[in-house]
Backbone:
């Protein structure tokens, strides 16, 4: 089983849609989880941190299910500017991040 | 807002040459990291650094790689003898202190091209 698995997409959605991404992880000892967004050929930018069952920030909601070892990210009211690759990153030992391959989101006008 | 900075933005070098990639982490951060991303692939951890020593390194981080914090602000990654397969985007990140200790902020990256 891969350390972190994400559906690569692409997810093509119209503006205003709600879209959800899932991520599964194999290390049951992970305590902290992060969602990053990455634009083409740019650095990952921290979007959300998840330490307990979930977190909400405006249009973005992240949820953690430790029993099933998955994390989800929900984006409501999608905007053109949300088009990017979304990276799931559980934290391993000594704080290193273990990235998934990312899910590509394309929001269409 | 404080940012991680990296120089150069693009480095072209010949196989077998040494390169040093430079990073200035966010000033009050305590943990420092290097990651790399080969074109079209996922971001991979290389090394973490805390209290002037390596905390963890990946299998990629072999004897050809080294890190240093030569002064209070810079954090460098050296590749002693570059190979073609070292061509990638190298990202520096930093995190801490306090309750957001584990949130890592990334620099814009250095694109390394080995010819």
Residues:
């Amino acid at each position: 089983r891969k350390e972190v698995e994400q559906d690569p997409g692409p997810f093509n959605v119209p503006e205003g849609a709600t879209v959800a991404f899932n991520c599964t992880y194999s290390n049951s000892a992970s305590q902290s989880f992060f969602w990053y967004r990455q634009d083409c050929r740019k650095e990952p930018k921290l979007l959300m941190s998840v330490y307990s069952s979930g977190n909400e920030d405006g249009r973005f909601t992240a949820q953690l299910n430790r029993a099933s070892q998955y994390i989800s990210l929900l984006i409501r009211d999608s905007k053109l500017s949300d088009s990017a690759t979304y990276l799931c990153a559980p934290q391993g030992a000594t704080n290193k991040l273990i990235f998934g391959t990312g899910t590509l989101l394309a929001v269409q006008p | 807002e404080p940012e991680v900075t990296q120089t150069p933005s693009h480095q072209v070098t010949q196989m077998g040459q040494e390169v040093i990639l430079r990073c200035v982490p966010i000033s009050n951060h305590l943990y420092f990291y290097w990651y790399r991303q080969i074109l079209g692939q996922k971001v991979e951890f290389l090394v973490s650094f805390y209290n002037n020593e390596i905390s963890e390194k990946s299998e990629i981080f072999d004897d050809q790689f080294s890190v240093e914090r030569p002064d209070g602000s810079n954090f460098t990654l050296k590749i002693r003898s570059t190979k073609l397969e070292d061509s990638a985007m190298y990202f520096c990140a930093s995190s801490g202190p306090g309750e957001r200790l584990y949130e890592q902020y990334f620099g814009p990256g250095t694109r390394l091209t080995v010819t």
